[in-house]
Design brief:
This protein is 38% helix and 26% strand. It is an alpha/beta fold. The strands form five sheets. The protein has a seven-stranded mixed sheet, with helices on both faces. Strands 2-4-8-7-6 form a five-stranded mixed sheet. It has a three-stranded antiparallel sheet with strand order 16-18-17. Strand 17 and strand 18 form a beta hairpin. Helix 4 runs antiparallel to helix 5, helix 5 runs parallel beside helix 8 and helix 13 packs across helix 14. It binds S-adenosylmethionine.
Length: 402
């Protein structure tokens, strides 16, 4: 068994045992030093190959440690940052294994690091920032491929970034869930269709609220595959067409208790056709309860001006309001029972968390400060009990199938 010792970043203890030396010298390659925050962790591998495979599979990025001029070790260590499912680990490799002797035990202390490295090691958002950067680069490459003629949908480009946003601030949208639950007032056995389901933020909640079938409709295969994981395969997936007719045609007439949607109806090309399909699949007495950005509000303007210009894929929308909803449902067996703008807020534990969330959510290749400045000017946020509370008003409405 080879040992990879871990220590805290500022008090790094490197202990080499005979098995490790044998490996290092034998392959004339690298010796890994694991550093971890906030406390240490030991990783065991059966072989160097196993360790290398693990590192390659888990690698999040790289960094350089500057040990300073006094220490007789290589001045710069190049390292890898890995996420092992629960925490970030920092592996540095020395390219001169001959410096080590069997049984060596060296205390590498004090540990002088370049400012950049300190930032990296001390920063709780390190891994996230790195993955965000990688995904933004990937998204830009996809946008370029699309510009050269390849058909790639916006939400396939943004899928991973969207997932990262949910990861950095998983409880930011708690208000959305609570308000939707309140509007739906489910009995617990409904068959529910989640339209524009995305990565399953609501689908998962619906599954916990009903024993009935939950059907997720979205045009993005990428998002549906994330949703499938998020919902542990328990939702039925339907790939949407731009007007949703094709997707919903497999759902029988009058067979669904609830159609719901959050933040996605503005993307539907032919909203009238979508309304016709909703009216067709709902049982009499069934509800179509949804929320979206309301036309002619500060939030809609924010999307049309800032998001449209700065999101890597751009952003186009057909916003809804009460007049538009009535027009879309005219002559259909849908009765508008309630409509109002709910003053939702999204909550973050810091400005950085908020900026990173939006960089992922809206695929912004902008500095964190630019994102914060825009949100402050366009939407406004307050700080309460160390939480950032951002205004995110949405129009909620409920139609009942007559
Ligand atoms: C802002 S996301 C909302 C996702 C999810 N409801 C949530 O609250 O997290 C908008 C979603 O609308 C989907 N979408 C785009 N065009 C659509 C269409 N024509 N029909 C249904 N969904 C569509 C996108 O793929 C994306 O997943």
């Amino acid at each position: 068994m080879f040992r990879y010792e871990a220590g805290s970043c500022l008090n790094t203890t490197y202990i080499s045992g005979a098995p490790m030396i044998r490996v290092t010298v034998g392959i004339q390659k690298h010796l890994y030093l694991g550093l971890d925050l906030p406390d240490s962790e030991e990783l065991m591998f059966d072989s160097v190959e196993a360790a290398d495979t693990w590192l390659a599979a888990n690698s999040e990025g790289s960094f350089t440690i500057d040990l300073g001029p006094k220490y007789p070790w290589p001045k710069h260590w190049h390292g890898t940052i890995v996420y092992n499912g629960s925490r970030y680990l920092f592996f540095a490799c020395i390219n001169r294994p001959s410096l080590l002797q069997p049984g060596d035990s060296k205390i590498v202390k004090p540990f002088s690091m370049s400012l950049e490295t300190k930032d990296i090691l001390m920063n709780e958002f390190l891994g996230y920032r790195h993955r965000l950067k990688q995904q933004l680069r990937h998204a830009k490459a996809l946008v370029a491929r699309r510009e050269s003629g390849q058909a790639i949908q916006d939400f396939d480009i943004r899928g991973e970034l969207y997932g990262l946003a949910c990861e950095i601030a998983p409880s930011a949208r708690h208000d959305d869930l609570v308000t939707m639950r309140h509007w739906l007032s489910l009995r617990g056995n409904e068959r529910i269709v989640d339209l524009a389901a995305g990565t399953g933020f609501f689908t998962k909640d619906f599954l916990s609220q009903t024993t009935g079938e939950v059907i997720a409709v979205d045009p993005s295969e990428m998002q549906l595959s994330v949703l499938n994981k998020v919902c542990a395969g328990r939702a039925r997936l339907l790939a949407a067409s731009p007007d949703n007719r094709q997707a919903m045609s497999v759902i029988p007439d009058a067979s669904v208790d609830v159609v719901s949607s959050f933040g996605g109806l503005h993307h539907v090309d032919d909203q009238r056709t979508m309304f016709e399909e909703v009216a067709r699949i709902l049982k009499p007495g069934g509800q179509f309860t949804a929320a979206d950005v309301c036309a002619n509000t500060t939030l809609a303007r924010h999307f049309d001006e800032f998001v449209a210009a700065k999101c890597l894929t751009g952003h186009t929308a057909q916003w809804l309001d009460e007049a538009k909803l009535r027009e879309l449902a005219s002559s259909l067996p849908l009765k508008l029972e309630r409509v109002e703008v709910a003053p939702l807020t999204w909550k973050f534990s810091s400005l950085t968390e908020m900026a990173l969330f939006f960089k992922g959510l809206h695929a912004y290749d902008l500095s964190e400060q630019e994102v914060i400045d825009d949100l402050q000017t366009a939407l406004g946020f307050t700080t309460e009990n160390d939480q950032i509370i951002l205004n995110w008003p949405m129009v909620f409405f409920r139609f009942v199938r007559t």
